[in-house]
């Protein structure tokens, strides 16, 4: 007995411990209550029942918002036992001028929710509430403040004295004129004083138009410039589309990702001014693997001499060895406007083989190997590439640029230098641990996850779109969620993100509709992740909550240090 114990002790000492996720609970959220009756919930796949969430650390309550224009729900969920969360109340936003909820933040004494306007070119709003009162079972609104057009994301300083809202201002049809309109992107800073949050600073980007040539030279994408022949002029500041915002841990700076533009704005929160707009540059895939074809029905990682834009869909802030870094989920985003939806047809992307067939590529200067891969649908033929970037002096495309970095990056938050890139780690780990669902989609309820394998490879591959940073013991960690339901755990020892584990929730052996009905569809189209440290966790064990937008689901996982003995 004793020798057996010693044997195990030696085994443990010699094997690596890994940070892994241990499932605590899984719940689907209702997207509708029949006739408004809370005892009559309706559930459904692809109903956007859940999108964003925020955890109130003192009250142990999770606020989960839907992304629906008809039922704008904020579910107030008891997390005293993360192994069995339950809905305490659902707050319904019923102001007809509002579009949908886009983000939620929980401060000690305030819950903030951003709402777009139903009118796509009108100002959105932020609503402020006192946190849910368990004793009285009330959730009381204390304020409603106009922000910019289409608020998309929000961040709060650590003391919650400032809220920063990124207003996307995307292209839409102006309902009055019936023509294309690209509202100005902007950032709203709301400053608290004794009366609440009345002081508001709206920061437009028009001042950046004077330096547009510099920005383009540095690599900022000015994607849709209008069509001057038909009188559509779209300025640089209109084309800047803020997507995600995060704040440095010293509360001095806000960072705003302009996703399509492949750029990050750094804002001084004390002096309320734009410090700079930084181009993020392009990733050189020459020494990394990727799968750029949706026609292999499996992982097919190859080398291609192509480039891609980082285009973060989500930013976070992390501290490693006392120094702050901006962390980005390099999702990718192409821009396509249609006459029906936007009043004008425009696309910044095309499949590589189509670009070749249309004579857009410089076949005299391009590498012959690359050209043959572009003509092969098993390789680069199907991939979506930019048709507005990569032009050479002969006015032909000489370099192939794809959308999205298919990974995560660390940026020095002082200089914005790119200090770490996860390379092809996300796709390689996915192909190794979950080959059956590699780069898969969740879009067809009558197909199974394995039938939808590889369908996103020609788009943006793993598409990381949710991030959370935290600490387990003394180890700084980064949790990354991908569109197709993988949750990666990295440690951030040194200025890098080192792979610990990857988890996929749910089954694969039935069609999505059946998996959903049986609570076995997992976390599909992960749209938000939060990390709750040991000190704030009711059980004393750090956990993450994961929101799946396609599955309208909330999952909770403990983050545990498990010996990797098998
Ligand atoms: C991309 O990397 C390859 C291999 O290191 C190199 O030859 C090439 O010059 C790089 N491209 C650019 C634009 O730096």
Architecture overview:
InterPro entries: Choice_anch_I, Mesenchyme-surface_protein, Quinoprotein_ADH-like_sf, WD40/YVTN_repeat-like_dom_sf. Residues 52-557 form the Choice-of-anchor I domain. Residues 436-468 are annotated as: Disordered. Residues 1-17 form the signal peptide. This is Choice-of-anchor I domain-containing protein. By secondary structure, this protein is mainly beta. It has 8 helices and 43 strands. The strands form 14 sheets. It has a 4-stranded antiparallel beta sheet with strand order 1-43-42-41, with no helix packed on it. It is globular and about 75 Å long. The relative contact order is 0.13. Bound molecules: 2-acetamido-2-deoxy-beta-D-glucopyranose.
Shape: globular
Major sheet, described briefly? 4 strands, antiparallel
**Unreliable residue runs:** 1-14
Helix content: under 10%
Cα-based radius of gyration, to the nearest Å:
23 Å
Strand coverage percent: 35-45%
Beta-strand segment tally: 43
Keywords: Signal
InterPro entries: Choice_anch_I (IPR055188), Mesenchyme-surface_protein (IPR052956), Quinoprotein_ADH-like_sf (IPR011047), WD40/YVTN_repeat-like_dom_sf (IPR015943)
Biased composition (Polar residues): 436-452
Region (Disordered): 436-468
Give the arrangement of secondary structure elements.
Elements: H1 2-14, E1 17-28, E2 32-33, E3 41-42, E4 52-56, E5 61-65, E6 72-78, E7 86-93, E8 98-106, E9 111-117, E10 123-129, E11 141-149, E12 151-156, E13 162-167, E14 172-173, E15 180-181, E16 186-193, E17 196-204, H2 212-218, E18 226-227, E19 232-233, H3 236-239, E20 242-247, E21 253-258, E22 263-268, E23 273-279, E24 282-284, E25 289-290, E26 302-303, E27 307-309, E28 314-320, E29 323-330, E30 336-337, H4 339-342, E31 346-347, E32 349-351, H5 352-357, H6 368-374, E33 384-386, E34 401-403, E35 407-412, E36 418-421, H7 425-433, E37 464-472, E38 475-482, E39 486-491, E40 498-504, H8 512-517, E41 526-532, E42 543-548, E43 553-563
Parallel strand pairs: 27-34
Antiparallel strand pairs: 1-43, 2-3, 4-5, 5-6, 6-7, 8-9, 9-10, 10-11, 12-13, 13-16, 14-15, 16-17, 18-19, 20-21, 21-22, 22-23, 24-27, 25-26, 28-29, 29-35, 30-31, 32-33, 35-36, 37-38, 38-39, 39-40, 41-42, 42-43
The structure holds 2-acetamido-2-deoxy-beta-D-glucopyranose.
């Amino acid at each position: 007995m004793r020798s057996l114990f010693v044997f195990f002790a030696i085994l443990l000492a010699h094997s690596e411990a890994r940070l892994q996720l241990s499932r605590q609970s899984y719940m689907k959220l209702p997207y509708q209550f029949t006739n408004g009756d809370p005892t009559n919930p309706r559930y459904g796949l692809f109903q956007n029942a859940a999108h964003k969430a925020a955890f109130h650390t003192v009250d142990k309550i999770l606020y989960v918002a839907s992304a629906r224009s008809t039922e704008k729900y904020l579910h107030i969920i008891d997390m005293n036992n993360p192994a069995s969360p339950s809905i305490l109340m659902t707050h319904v936003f019923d102001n007809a001028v509002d579009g949908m909820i886009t983000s939620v933040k929980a401060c000690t004494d305030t819950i903030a929710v951003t709402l777009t306007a139903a009118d796509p070119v009108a100002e959105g709003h932020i609503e402020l509430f006192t946190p849910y009162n368990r004793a009285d079972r009330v959730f009381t609104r204390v304020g409603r403040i106009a922000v910019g057009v289409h608020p998309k994301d929000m961040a709060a300083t650590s003391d919650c004295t400032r809220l920063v809202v990124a207003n996307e201002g995307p292209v839409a049809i102006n309902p009055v004129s019936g023509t294309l309109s690209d509202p100005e992107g902007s950032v709203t800073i709301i400053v608290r004083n004794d009366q609440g949050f009345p002081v508001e600073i709206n920061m437009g980007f028009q001042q950046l138009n004077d330096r547009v040539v510099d920005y383009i030279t540095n690599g900022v994408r000015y994607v849709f410039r209008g069509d001057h022949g038909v009188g559509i002029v779209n300025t640089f500041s209109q084309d800047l589309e803020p997507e995600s915002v995060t704040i440095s841990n010293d509360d001095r700076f806000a960072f705003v990702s302009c996703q399509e533009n492949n750029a990050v704005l750094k804002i001084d929160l004390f002096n309320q001014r734009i410090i700079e707009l930084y181009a993020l540059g392009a990733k050189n895939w020459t020494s990394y693997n990727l799968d750029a074809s949706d026609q292999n029905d499996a992982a097919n990682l190859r080398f291609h001499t192509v480039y891609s834009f980082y285009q973060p869909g989500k930013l976070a802030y992390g501290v490693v060895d006392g120094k702050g870094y901006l962390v980005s989920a390099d999702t990718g985003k192409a821009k396509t406007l249609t006459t029906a939806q936007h009043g004008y047809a425009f696309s910044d992307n095309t499949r590589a083989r189509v670009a070749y067939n249309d004579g857009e590529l410089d076949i005299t200067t391009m590498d012959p190997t690359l050209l043959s891969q572009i003509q092969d649908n098993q390789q680069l033929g199907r991939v979506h590439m930019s048709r507005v970037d990569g032009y050479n002096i002969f006015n032909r495309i000489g370099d192939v640029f794809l959308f999205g970095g298919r990974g995560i990056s660390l940026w020095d938050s002082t200089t914005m230098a790119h200090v770490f890139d996860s390379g092809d780690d996300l796709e390689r780990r996915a192909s190794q641990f979950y080959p059956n669902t590699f780069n898969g989609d969740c879009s067809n309820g009558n197909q199974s996850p394995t039938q939808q394998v590889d369908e996103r490879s020609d788009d943006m591959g793993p598409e990381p779109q949710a991030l959370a940073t935290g600490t387990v013991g003394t180890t700084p960690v980064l949790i990354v969620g991908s569109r197709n339901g993988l949750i990666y755990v990295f440690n951030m020892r040194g200025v890098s993100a080192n792979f610990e584990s990857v988890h996929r929730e749910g089954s694969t052996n039935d069609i999505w509709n059946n998996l959903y009905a049986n609570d076995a569809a997992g976390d599909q189209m992960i749209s938000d992740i939060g990390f709750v440290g040991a000190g704030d966790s009711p059980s004393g064990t750090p956990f993450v909550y994961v929101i799946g937008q396609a599955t309208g689901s909330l999952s909770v996982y403990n983050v545990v240090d498990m010996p990797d003995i098998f």
